[in-house]
Specification:
There is one protein chain. The protein contains 21 helices and 13 strands. By secondary structure, the chain is an alpha/beta fold. The strands form two sheets. The chain has a seven-stranded parallel beta sheet with strand order 3-2-1-4-5-6-7, with helices on both faces. Helix 14 links the parallel strand 9 and strand 10. It starts with a helix and ends with a helix.
């Protein structure tokens, strides 16, 4: 009997221990999702505001977790092109956008058409306004990645309480929300589109090598103890990120570089595929390839990781090595507005840096670039233009001759594709997305520091038969000296080599990265999700 009593005693204890997490999970489910009555009420509310075509198929609700849905960047283009793709093929699906913007549905749809040229059907669209976006945009002084990841879970909890979808789509990269969705309901598949990993091996290497950078403060880089502590923190964060990512049902990445990191972290290679982001190249590809001016165009937000300083250093080295291109002291200053209005023709090369500023910090970075150019004595040949309207950006792309992009480990680079489509001879950093996906094959510097240039014979062969002959689509560089070499080549090259480079770049930009290519790749990943929902519903 004592043995039996002992067994019963420990069985009860074990039962209580096992019951605790189940009770906690159930409590969280009720707390976050609300009661069944609440869920039914919210779904009825959304149903009353939307009009899906359910004549041949019952309605499904696909929730898009994208707190900055009203912004105008590449991530938002991916979001809204996904919505458009779903509306085109699945008229029975209602897209629910979890957004942190206080914008009416009509204004949001109108903005999407203005920014991206996409016509969104309001009848199958609903917006859930999130009020806790501060959790993911707050500038934490320390452990930013961890605290913003925790904040994304809080924000996702608010989203799911407001409305429980049939499919949860994360188009930002907040992987820490995936376990929350799976814990609350195993019936909700998680679809992920990842633009870049929250934590990567490159970031860990940067810290362990004590190299200062965007993600490694110089104070930490100069301290052995702080470096060790941050290395432990990054390893722990990477393990947590990998665990969270494993809850995704299917994962799409925007480039081969991102794909390789995500496969290594999430550990679900069969469910992970590259889906290049859609690039609106149709209008840009119609720009004439001739009559270009000696203008170097940079197109990137004024964020620290874009490394605009390298562009100014490279331009300064180019002018130092080619004094005939330096604007004389007595020459009149050239105003950007006069160039765009064709009132003046620039006699000397100009570096025109176009980019958006999200806040006052970005504005300050733009001003630092102007000061740097002045300090190097090239201020009159450098124009830093903040938040230019898209019409002006297109005008610069129409008349510019060379495009430049200097971010290291750029996960993709939509702006690079846009410059290539517009006909610019483009040079980008020899890493990540540009190296692996976009500028391939590329012109790069040989061991002697000089570019390995294509021959005129190869150029003529490509122009004669572009389908069977391979030709470089652009240039890549790493150091300021290498970028300067590429600028010199881009500004001087003429004839068949110039035209072959332009046409090869435009061909890649308009086929490999088109909206049509995105639709095909997206459907290949999303069709199985719809079929899974159908099977699940038929079993009920």
């Amino acid at each position: 009997m004592p043995l039996l009593e002992t067994v019963i005693h420990y069985s009860l204890v074990l039962g209580v221990v096992l019951a605790i997490p189940m009770v906690v999970a159930l409590g969280l489910q009720v707390l976050i999702l609300g009661t069944q009555s609440h869920q039914t009420s919210t779904r009825q509310h959304v149903a009353s505001l939307t009009q899906p075509d359910t004549r041949e198929h019952p309605v499904y609700y696909v929730g898009f977790f994208h707190p900055y849905a009203n912004a105008g960047g590449g991530g938002e283009r991916v979001l809204w092109t996904m919505v458009k793709a779903i509306q085109d093929k699945y008229p029975f699906v209602v897209c629910v956008i979890y957004a942190g913007d206080s914008t009416s549905l009509a204004d949001l749809v109108r903005g999407v058409q203005t920014k991206f040229g996409l016509r969104i059907n309001k009848d199958t669209l609903h917006v859930v306004e999130l009020t806790r976006r501060l959790w993911v945009e707050h500038k934490y002084e320390r452990m930013t990645l961890l605290l913003q990841s925790v904040g994304s879970v809080v924000l996702a909890a608010e989203a799911l309480h407001a409305f429980v979808p049939d499919v949860f789509v994360d188009t930002v990269g907040f992987a820490f929300t995936y376990p929350l969705v799976s814990m609350l309901s195993s019936r909700i598949p998680v679809v992920s589109y990842t633009h870049y990993p929250t934590i990567s091996s490159d970031m860990q290497t940067l810290v362990s090598s004590r190299e200062a950078g965007v993600s490694n403060d110089p104070v930490v880089a100069n301290s052995q103890m702080l470096t060790e502590l941050k290395s432990v923190y990054y390893r722990g964060l990477a393990m947590a990120y990998a665990f969270a990512g494993s809850f995704a049902s299917t994962v799409m990445t925007n480039s081969s570089w991102t794909h390789n990191h995500i496969v290594k972290l999430f550990g679900i290679p069969r469910m992970t595929r590259v889906v290049y982001p859609p690039c609106d190249t149709q209008v840009l590809a119609e720009f004439p390839l001739d009559e270009r001016k000696s203008i170097i165009v940079s197109l990137a937000q004024f964020r620290p990781e874009k490394n605009h300083e390298l562009q100014i250093d490279a331009f300064a080295k180019f002018l130092e090595a080619n004094p005939e291109f330096v604007m004389p002291a007595g020459a009149a200053n050239v105003k950007p507005a006069d160039i765009l209005a064709s009132r003046v023709e620039p006699e000397y090369p100009l570096l025109v840096m176009l980019g958006g500023a999200r806040n006052i910090e970005d504005e300050a970075r733009a001003e630092v670039l102007r000061q740097k150019a002045e300090a190097l004595g090239i201020g009159r040949q450098v124009h830093v233009i903040v938040n230019a309207p898209w019409s002006d950006v297109q005008s610069w792309l129409r008349i510019g001759r060379v495009g430049i992009h200097t971010m290291r480990d750029e996960h993709f680079g939509i702006n690079i594709v846009e410059m290539m489509a517009a006909g610019l001879l483009t040079v980008a950093h020899d890493s990540a997305g540009p190296r692996m996906d976009i500028i391939t094959p590329a012109i790069r510097c040989a061991s002697d520091g000089k570019p390995s240039l294509p021959s005129e014979a190869d150029a003529r062969a490509y122009l004669k038969s572009s389908d069977s002959v391979e030709f470089p689509v652009g240039m890549v560089a790493t150091t300021a000296a290498e970028f300067a070499q590429m600028l010199a080549f881009g500004l001087r090259v003429t004839g068949p080599v110039e035209r072959a480079l332009q046409q090869a770049a435009r061909n890649v930009a308009t086929t490999k990265f088109s909206e049509a290519a995105f639709y095909t790749a997206f459907y290949s990943r999303f069709d199985p999700v719809i079929r899974w929902l159908d099977i699940q519903r038929s079993d009920d």
